[in-house]
Structures are given as structure tokens and as C-alpha cells.
Amino acid sequence: MPRLKKSFLFVCALIFLAIGTAWGQSVNSVLSELDQNYYYPQKQGLKSVSARVQWEQLDVASGSGKYLRNPDFIFTWQANSNEGLGKFSLAKEQEGDRFRELIRQINPFRELIIPLTLEQKFFNHEGRVQKGDKLLVRLNSKTESGGTYKLLVDPKEWVIRKLRLEQTHSPEDVKGEFRYIKLADKHAISESLSRFEVKGQEYVEVTRYKYKKVKGIWWVRRIDQTLKRGGQVMQTYVFKLSGIKPILSSH
């Protein structure tokens, strides 16, 4: 019996040591581990890519349930670009305030097609990892305009389950949750849900992703995003990517 007890204590010590090592990880090591487990198209030997983007939005004003089609865009991305993000341009050159406004509206969707890695996204942040049932990573922006992120990380699957963003401007508090699918044994977001308040009214934004494989790389082929206020649909966007043309780096 004493030998069994000693063996049990030894196993417990090993488990405690393993857990202690996980909780003692630095922010950089956690972000690096997450990045290794997420699927990034740009990490598949990609040099550049272009794709046509069809953008439709729900005709909320008429209540018809029909979708209105905006002008098509061309999305392009190149390795080693300054921001690490792609860019949108109109498929057919057009001038005017309306088209400039459309470009402004579509720009935030660049990161949904080829996302920044977490190490890129949080380059100007510093923080710490806190102990809990899951890893809680707190990241504070080094700039005054930035906010504070709290990431709830699943250390078994190495994915972010929940996110909270606190910032000085509206919306001040944003809460997000994520669901995933596996692409080439790595995780890719299949659905994200965000909740936030603006002027005392609650908004819920749901974004869903579908993927396709082109030249051995998985790409977002469709993005559906719906914004609700108090349970009422305020807007729905549908983005469809076609003619995806990746150029791979030579090895």
C-alpha cells in the first residue's frame, strides 16, 4: 500500500507540473501556440491571390425579403504587404460618393478572407495569462485608441472559445463566441457571434463561413453576416467569392 500511495503522489506531481507549466506560459507563447493550430491560407506557401467578390444585401426598407446586389469587387492580397491585409477595388472603375462609401463599408471584411495571425493582430499589445478552467489571456493595447481584449483559450484544442473587447469608444463592451471546423487538421472559424450595446440597445451579429479548396489551399467562398437589434433584423450581407487565383511561392 505505501508503494501504491507513493506512485499515486508521483503521478499527481507530474500532472500538477504539467498544469503549472501551461498556466505559466507567456502571452507570446500562447498566441504562437494558437497560431500553429489555426488554418491560415497565407501559411500554405502563398505569394499572392486575387478573387472576384459578389456582395448582396437584404432589402430591409421594403420588407420584401429580397437581396439587392452591389457592384462587384476584386479582392487582392500579396505576401509581405505593410498591413498584412488584402484590399478591395471595384471590378468596374466607377467614381462618386456612393462607390467610395461602399469601399469604406466592405474594407472591414478583408480580414475575414485572409485573417491576420494572432501574433500580427496583437503586435501592439501587452498582457498576461491568468489561471482558470481555461487559459484567460488579457491583452492591453499600447496605444491610447486601442482597447483591452480578454481571450478565453481552450488549452486542449488550442482555440479561442470566447472573446471580450473593452474600449473607450462605442460599442464599449463587445462579447464574442466562436465555432470551428477542421481544415487540413487545423481549426478554421465556421461561425462567430458578437453581442454589444449602442445607446442602451442590444445588438447581435452572427457571421457564418463556408470554404472551398483551390490549388491545395482552403479559401472562404461565402460569408453570411446578419445584424439584429432587439431581435429584429437590421441588415444581412452575403459575400460570394469566385475566380480565386492563387500564386504560390516556388520552393
Can you characterise this structure?
The chain is an alpha+beta fold. It has one domain (27-246). Helices cover 20% and strands 49% of the residues. It has helices at residues 2-23, 27-37, 97-106, 110-113, 118-121; strands spanning 46-58, 67-69, 73-78, 87-90, 125-130, 135-141, 148-154, 159-166, 173-183, 186-198, 201-214, 217-229, 232-248. Strands 1, 2, 3, 4, 5, 6, 7, 8, 9, 10, 11, 12 and 13 form a 13-stranded antiparallel sheet that branches. It is globular and about 50 Å long. The protein starts with a helix and ends with a strand.
Report the major sheet.
13 strands, antiparallel
Tell me how many strands there are: 13
Query: For the CA atoms, what is the radius of gyration?
Result: 22 Å
Task: Based on Cα principal axes, name the global outline.
Answer: globular
Report, as a whole number of angstroms, the end-to-end distance.
60 Å
Q: Name the poorly predicted regions.
A: 1-24
Order of helices and strands: HHEEEEHHHEEEEEEEEE
Which helices and strands occur, and which strands form pairs?
Layout: H1 2-23, H2 27-37, E1 46-58, E2 67-69, E3 73-78, E4 87-90, H3 97-106, H4 110-113, H5 118-121, E5 125-130, E6 135-141, E7 148-154, E8 159-166, E9 173-183, E10 186-198, E11 201-214, E12 217-229, E13 232-248
Antiparallel strand pairs: 1-2, 1-3, 1-13, 3-4, 5-6, 6-7, 7-8, 8-9, 9-10, 10-11, 11-12, 12-13
